[in-house]
């Protein structure tokens, strides 16, 4: 009925005014609704696949992110020397930088850890005082320890930690293999895209890839700056309050801040443990814990999302949602890679007219397009 009605309306201006716009509007609405429904179903399927096959897709996502970061170095080197030699230099430098960050964290925790071990008698005295106070209020700590922290729990915890270490090592080995192969294939992939018959798709892929890589590098720069700010503030606070190892706490905060939420929590917990043996009053210990959390919250949840949103054209709400969402899907690594994935999606959406509205909706404020309320 709809095609016949539309055909009859084309011959009559009166019917066109009164009825054809309704028919064409209905067809357009149905088409738009089907497109939206198809997009939602496809997104749900992709998310389910990413969650179920995280061991496959997570190392690939890490490799793509690293390739985007180090490709300018590889490109510059291979213009001067053979490609394999340039690849070897790029991979060695990348691994050395990663190991350097890990070494900084190990150095800081090593120095602080020796102090904590030396203060074990004080922690034992604090524990005894706490047990006595709780027993006086009807809470049996010994019973809780016997019920929950036994040999079986210790074995399960050891197995879990061992499994996580093996999984992490396997993850980064696979990611490193992807990086080496990917760096060798960047030029070939670009040439294949340029030869595609679908010129629109080719242009979207080329422009989107270049813009995404640029935003990845900008994101890492923002993260480094915010980590440095966090490290300086934490170190300065520790020095002002007289907390030992102020420089080490700043280094630890700087390194761990690359892992959103989880890293700052660890960087806050250990200074508080040290404060328990350095200060005589519990209010002072609580004050250290609260002030460190204020620093981490102010930088990580207020300043950084807004700086990233301004520099990367992404909404601060999307930044926080991406971190929580990908942490839920991929765990600790998802905490780090969540924002880059959101950047890539929005950048490719902006590269095509039909999906540009998504980037405009979820992107950062655009001064060239003032909104109206």
UniProtKB/TrEMBL annotation:
InterPro entries: AI-2E-like (IPR002549). It comes from the Bacteria. It is found in: Membrane. It is a multi-pass membrane protein. Its main location: membrane. The chain crosses the membrane at residues 30-50, 56-73, 85-109, 169-186, 226-245, 251-270, 282-303, 323-348. Keywords: Membrane, Transmembrane, Transmembrane helix. Belongs to the autoinducer-2 exporter (AI-2E) (TC 2.A.86) family. This is AI-2 transport protein TqsA. It comes from Bradyrhizobium algeriense.
């Amino acid at each position: 009925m709809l095609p016949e009605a539309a055909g009859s309306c084309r011959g009559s201006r009166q019917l066109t005014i009164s009825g054809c716009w309704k028919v064409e509007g209905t067809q357009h609405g149905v088409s738009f609704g089907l497109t939206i429904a198809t997009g939602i179903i496809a997104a749900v399927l992709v998310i389910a696949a990413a969650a179920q096959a995280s061991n496959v897709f997570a190392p690939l996502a890490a490799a793509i992110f690293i390739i985007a970061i180090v490709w300018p170095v590889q490109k510059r080197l291979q213009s001067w020397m053979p490609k394999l030699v340039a690849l070897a230099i790029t991979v060695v430098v990348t691994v050395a930088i990663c190991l350097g960050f890990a070494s900084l964290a190990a150095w800081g925790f090593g120095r602080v850890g020796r102090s904590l071990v030396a203060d074990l008698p004080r922690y034992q005295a604090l524990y005894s005082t706490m047990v006595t106070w709780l027993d006086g209020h009807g809470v049996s700590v010994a019973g809780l320890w016997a019920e929950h922290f036994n040999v079986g729990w210790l074995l399960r915890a050891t197995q879990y930690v061992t499994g996580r270490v093996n999984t992490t090592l396997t993850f980064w080995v696979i990611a490193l293999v992807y990086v080496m192969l990917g760096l060798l294939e960047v030029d070939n992939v670009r040439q294949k895209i340029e030869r595609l018959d679908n010129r629109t798709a080719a242009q979207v892929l080329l422009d989107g890839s270049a813009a995404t890589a640029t935003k990845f590098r900008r994101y890492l720069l923002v993260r480094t700056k915010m980590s440095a700010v966090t490290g300086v503030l934490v170190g300065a606070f520790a020095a002002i309050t007289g907390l030992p190892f102020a420089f080490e706490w700043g280094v630890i905060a700087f390194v761990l801040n690359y892992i959103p939420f989880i890293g700052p929590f660890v960087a806050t917990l250990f200074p508080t443990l040290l404060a328990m043996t350095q200060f005589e009053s519990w209010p002072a210990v609580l004050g250290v814990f609260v002030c460190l959390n204020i620093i981490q919250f102010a930088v990580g949840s207020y300043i950084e999302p807004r700086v990233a949103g301004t520099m990367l054209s992404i909404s601060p709400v999307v930044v926080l949602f991406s971190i929580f969402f990908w942490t839920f899907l991929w765990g600790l690594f998802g905490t780090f890679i969540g924002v880059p994935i959101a950047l890539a999606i929005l950048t490719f959406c902006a590269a095509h007219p039909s999906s540009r509205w998504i980037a405009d909706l979820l992107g950062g404020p655009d001064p060239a397009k003032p909104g109206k309320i």
